[in-house]
Design brief:
- The structure is a single chain.
- Helices cover 57% and strands 0% of the residues.
- By secondary structure, the chain is an all-alpha fold.
- It has a domain of 118 residues.
């Protein structure tokens, strides 16, 4: 992977993003380039096939205190819009033959943020989530009752995931410049 090209692509495009910290696959490709997007797709395919995250009980989500984590969900309820750090983090449990892919993705992410910060980017802090409460308090407030319902067993996890997904989509389409 051409890490420098991915970092330069990021620097050229980061200030144009308006929907952070929630981001789609297409926006990730636009932000880091096709090569990074292809590697991410391969890592996600590996995760689906080997159920790496599911089998470790989403430990990473717990460690970073993601507000959307609960073991009752089959997958992240904002999976289609999950933050960049969630998309670019692959723990040691990923048993891929070439671990340099994971290292390269981590390098691209962190080196991009450092370079953007040095350039005075006002978007860099939005990549430091989850937790999302600091960057997206309205989203967390709008979904907290559903999350509590799932955790307390008073709301079906599939229904809650659908409601949260809809709220995340609504949050992303607001006319805000995050």
């Amino acid at each position: 992977m051409d890490k420098q090209k991915a970092i330069e692509t990021f620097l050229d495009r980061v200030e144009k993003l308006t929907r952070l910290p929630l981001i789609t696959d297409t926006e990730m490709e636009g932000l880091f380039g096709e090569e990074v997007a292809a590697l991410l797709a391969e890592m996600n395919r590996s995760n689906r096939e080997e159920k790496v995250c599911q089998n470790c009980e989403n430990r990473c989500c717990q460690v970073i205190s993601c507000e959307f984590y609960t073991p009752d969900f089959d997958q992240c309820p904002i999976y289609d819009f999950r933050p960049a750090v969630c998309r670019l983090h692959f723990c040691h449990r990923f048993g891929i033959a070439d671990n340099s892919v994971m290292k390269d993705l981590a390098d691209v992410f962190f080196d991009s943020l450092v370079a953007a910060d040095r350039n005075g980017s006002n978007k860099v802090r939005l990549f430091d989530s989850p937790p999302l409460a600091i960057c997206s308090p309205d989203l967390i407030a709008a979904t907290s009752a559903w999350l509590d319902g799932v955790r307390e067993g008073t709301l079906n996890h599939k229904e809650a995931a659908n409601l949260i997904q809809q709220e995340a989509e609504k949050y992303r389409t607001k006319d805000t410049d995050s």
